[in-house]
Amino acid sequence: MNEQLQRGRRSHPRVTRAIAAVTLACAGVALGGGSAVHAADVPVEEPPVNFHLNACFPEPALPTPPDLGPAIEGALTYDDWIATIVSATQGCQPLRVPVFGEFRMPLADPVMSSEFGRRYHPVRRRWLPHTGVDFVDRERRWRVSVLAAGMGTVIAAGNYAAYGRTVIIDHGARIATVYTHLSSIHVREGDYVEAGDRVGRLGSTGAVTGPHLHFEMRLGGAAVDPLDYVAPWPQPPPGHF
To answer: Which residues of 185-217 are buried (b: 16+ CB within 10 A; e: fewer)?
Structure first.
């Protein structure tokens, strides 16, 4: 054990220097043997929302999670999986926090069925973080259109185990939205969408107890309460059914 600790202490300066080199590389500054780098020359960014998703250390995207359904446990959580997809795509973009109303609801006439935060999971039967908001249509209609909350580029579209059919949109400035449990997907990776465009239809794919939309907003890869940023549509967008 003591030998391991000593090896850890000896390697720490090298790790620190490697981290510093990557940080400065993102800032456009190179570490040279004889050149001095002054702190004033390195631009300082606001800290990211999630401490482990540093703007200039984008984590590599995890592979598609295995089909473990409601029994998925351990480090391979869907929160981490979504975060790595977003951070790997957005890289060193500066983080901007949107204002309320800049984004719109993902359904034309939604009713919230489960809020953001800790909740008793209806499938896993224990208290777990809920990284988004669940919506149903006010008339309880199935397969109504799921709408892009804002303009952006689709960075993932596919069937992802317990999340079912899922779409993730990159809105720039390290803002992303996530739409899961869709019955069908109407976009492909790389598509550009405008606010109100149909990305899919409400469904019950994945680990669910009934038809609904699980909707997430990500800032810097971290999940935040979407209701702090999305506003209802003043009138139904065209083609919302």
So the answer is: bbbeeebebebbbbbbbbbebbbbeebbbbbbb
Phi/psi at 3 (5° precision):
-65, -40
Report pLDDT for 172.
Answer: 94
CB atoms within 10 A of CB 24: 16
The span from the CA of 119 to the CA of 114, in Å, is: 8
Return the pLDDT at 184.
97
Q: Are residues 144 and 106 in contact, defined by beta-carbon separation less than 8 angstroms? A: no
> What stretches in the chain show pLDDT beneath 50?
1-55, 66, 68-76
Three-state DSSP class for 238?
Answer: coil
> End-to-end CA distance of the chain, in Å?
63
Element (H, E) at 137: strand 133-137
Q: Dmax of the chain from CA atoms?
A: 69
The residues, ordered by sequence, that sit 6+ positions from 224 with a Cβ below 8 Å of its Cβ are: 49, 116, 217, 218
Q: How far apart are CA 115 and CA 225, in angstroms?
A: 8
Q: What is the pLDDT of residue 216?
A: 95
Per-residue pLDDT, 126: 57
Q: Would you say 189 and 61 are in contact if contact means Cβ atoms under 8 Å apart?
A: no
Which tokens go with 194?
A: 């405008």
Q: So what's the pLDDT on residue 12?
A: 41
